Amino acid sequence: MALTSKERAALRAEANRLSAVVHVGQHGITEALRQTTDDALRTMVLVKIQFTKTADVSIKDAANDLAGALGADVVQVIGKTATLYRNNPELKRKDEPPWRR
């Protein structure tokens, strides 16, 4: 499911207040990093990923690969930071989204 431009814009606005939860280091995208990102997406739905200066990967390519592997959507890539979104219908609906808790 691809995000519409309105949904993507709303998620970008929400992502401004998020801190990076996942950090990609010099080893790039590893299986452990995929698992960590998957866990974060499962509980938070919207996840910001910070790539270090030593990360030996193209940030856009890495974000797209990670999103494809995890069934997520890339919301945005700015500088060394990428934001991913994956809806989780199993999370209980509350007044505020999971990333604000």
Describe the protein's architecture and organization.
It is built from three helices and four strands. With 101 residues, it is of the alpha+beta class. It has one domain (5-89): YhbY-like (Translation Initiation Factor IF3, 2-Layer Sandwich), CATH 3.30.110.60. Strand 3 (73-78) and strand 4 (81-85) form a beta hairpin. It is globular and about 40 Å long. It starts with a helix and ends in a 16-residue tail after the last strand. The model has no long low-confidence stretch (mean pLDDT 88).
Short synopsis of the structure:
Helix content is 37%, strand content 20%. It contains 3 helices and 4 strands; from the N terminus they run αβαβαββ.
List keywords for this structure.
four-stranded mixed sheet; alpha+beta; 3 helices; 37% helix; Translation Initiation Factor IF3; 101 residues; 4 strands; globular
Mean pLDDT: 88
Query: What is the count of β-strands?
Result: 4
Tell me the span between the first and last alpha carbons.
25 Å
Strand order of the largest sheet: 1-2-4-3
Protein structure class: alpha+beta
Say which CATH homologous superfamily is assigned.
YhbY-like
CATH C-level class is Alpha Beta
Radius of gyration: 13 Å
Strand % is 15-25%
| Shape annotation | globular
Largest β-sheet summary: 4 strands, mixed
